[in-house]
What we know:
The structure holds two protein chains of two kinds. Chain A is an alpha+beta fold. Helices cover 19% and strands 15% of the residues of chain A. Chain A has helices at 15-25, 57-61, 88-91, 115-119, and strands at residues 2-5, 36-38, 48-50, 67-69, 75-77, 125-128. The radius of gyration of chain A is 14 Å and the shape is globular. By secondary structure, chain B is α+β, with helices and mostly antiparallel strands. Chain B is built from 26 helices and 17 strands. Chain B has a six-stranded mixed beta sheet with strand order 2-1-6-3-4-5. In chain B, strands 8-7-12-9-10-11 form a six-stranded mixed beta sheet, with helices on both faces. Chain B has a three-stranded antiparallel beta sheet with strand order 13-14-15. Chain B is globular and about 60 Å long. The chains are: A alpha+beta, B alpha+beta.
Amino acid sequence: MRLYAESSKCSGCRACLVACSLNLFKENNPKKAALVIGAHFPAPGNYAVSVCTQCGECAAVCPTGAIQKNDRGAYYVIPADCTLCEACVPVCPENVMFVRTGLAETAWKCDLCGDCIAVCGTDVLRIGEIEAKA
Amino acid sequence: MNGYGGNILRVNLTTGKITKEPTPPELARDFIGGRGFGAYFLFKEVPQGADPLGPENKLIVSSGPLSGLMIPGAGKCDFTCKSPLTGGYASASLGGLFTAEIKYAGLDSIILEGISPKPVYLFIEDDKIELRDASSLWGKGTFATEKELKEKLGEEFQIACIGPGGENGVSYAHINHDYGRQAGRGGVGTVMGAKKVKALVIRGTQPIPVADLDAYRKAGMAMYDACKKSEMLKPWQNLGTTMVVSWCDEIGALPTRNFSAGSFEGGKTLYGPYMREKIVVNDKGCFACPSPCGKYSRMKRYGTNVEGPEYETIGMIGSNLGLAEIEDVAQANLLCDDLGIDTISAGGAIAWAMECYEKGILSKAETDGLDLKFGNVEAVFKVIEKIAKREGLGALLAEGTKRAAQKIGKGSEKFAIQVKGMEQSAYATHSATAMLLAYMTADVGAHHNRAWAITYDLQVGRELVNADKVARVIWLQHIRPMFDTLGACRLQWVELNLDLELYPPALEAITGVKRSWQDLHLVSERIWNLTRLYWAREQPGFGRAWDMPSPRFYTEPPKSGATAGKITSLEDVNKLLDVYYEQRGWNANGLPKLETLERLGLTRLVG
């Protein structure tokens, strides 16, 4: 399973980012969320929502095995095993693998909790089976 | 302190000194946040008789305890100062993403004091707080300013800035944010400009502490769940505030040609569905909002883009100026936003000038050669630019409708549509007594934000004048401003019918303080009375006469439209005030009685 985002429906409100940080860190801090909402203003057009596809590239390169699969089938970070080496960051095709040492002493990513979906009023997000790329 | 950023930031622009002090717990207890903090600091710290454009005035920017949290619409920011438009209390509410960053930077209020010797912008990145040179930005429009700052500093920074209107001292200059959200009313941008502050730039990375994390997440989720189940969610998302254009036109509340009528024969090409189809590109929401009313539009005719127009702008720049095409209104909206002036007051001032011109009170020479008839699109665009530059006719209109009419005279005061010096926003009140009273008694002047009572007028009988109607207005004046105190949007309650009882548990989980709506009403009443006392302190002779509406609403029934021939009598206007003062615990001149101040715990503060 993975998260899907339909960017054209996003209004840029960022409720998902707060819900995400509350799940991952038990904190109100959208700077520590595992989704990204890109703005484009003043030109009109859609917000660009980036989400984890659970491709596993991050887990494959992690030298300490700190990125494992949870019972939802999502890769998640075990903070105690993370050495902040940042190997996972550049391999993420969606740029949603985070290491920001000023903010947290661990890497972080989407663990498919689904809280972002619960607070999105415009139905941008959903969890579905991983579809093979066309 | 749970639910709060925890600090008040003071920036003395004269000396460059920047200091922080912990947010006093008793301030949070008695005034909660947002506009409560603003009213408290204004009353306590800005000396009596201060020049609104002088160094003694302060611009107080405040978030509330819900701001930046997982609560629907938790993105409201209050800007308070002494108003250069009215000489009294100004409090303008800003949506968008700004207020959340205030909290993440560990702040509750930012207080700008003094006057900078040169143009600056205030840079805040957590504890790194600096005044930086803004000479190269001075003179630029709000969009170019925001774009330049974001490109330089990064997308994560939130910007609130002024345009030429604020720099040039237009009495109703606004503060623009996120390419289209404004703290619009009362000249908060004028005060920022007088202080030589071009922009506030902020990014915070600190978490907001809460008292009971699990209870808060549960309460927040329950609110989102209720919003998403509301049958009003989809229609509201589709049209936002433009949903009411057609309704107002049908009931005779759409301001038409300087409020001479409430229905507009060209209204249909201003309606929400027409606008959605013709110009809207996508929706744009404020922080944590499940029901975005913001619409981002593309005007093909002009090759431009704008956030909006919202209902108020459609009413004030559209029908009130006789403009019938939404694309033209959107373009005028863009000009106002970029030049940094409030569309509501600008629309009111231009409509007054148009009526003066059509009646021969202003000659073509006095309009700088413009054929300033209702409906002249090009003339509207030119006047907006003249206002922002204070050039020719624009210099007169930049003073606001009340002062402009006092200067021109010749009976034009009678159709200056304002209360306390603030132009009335976009509800025509010839025959809607609760809404009329709401405008008469709003604490900043004729603004709809404090009590949107017009639906109640339609429910119970629009011409009715009785104690229930007055009580309803007071009830609204306590609930709606409470949202600006808490730092969240009221529209989930107003438009999605979100249960008010969902708020107290969330507030308790966040702050650790149990408050019922009854308690919140008391705080609202405290703030309401404090701002009333502020007016009385600042304006010699302040009283009943200041609550009178434009004579148009009790002497000139519309000749056409849904309210043709209908008018509220002067006797009923006075009766509304009598009952209102009595219910508020004020004397016959509209000033709070000592016992009222004692009940609200205000006697020590006001002396």
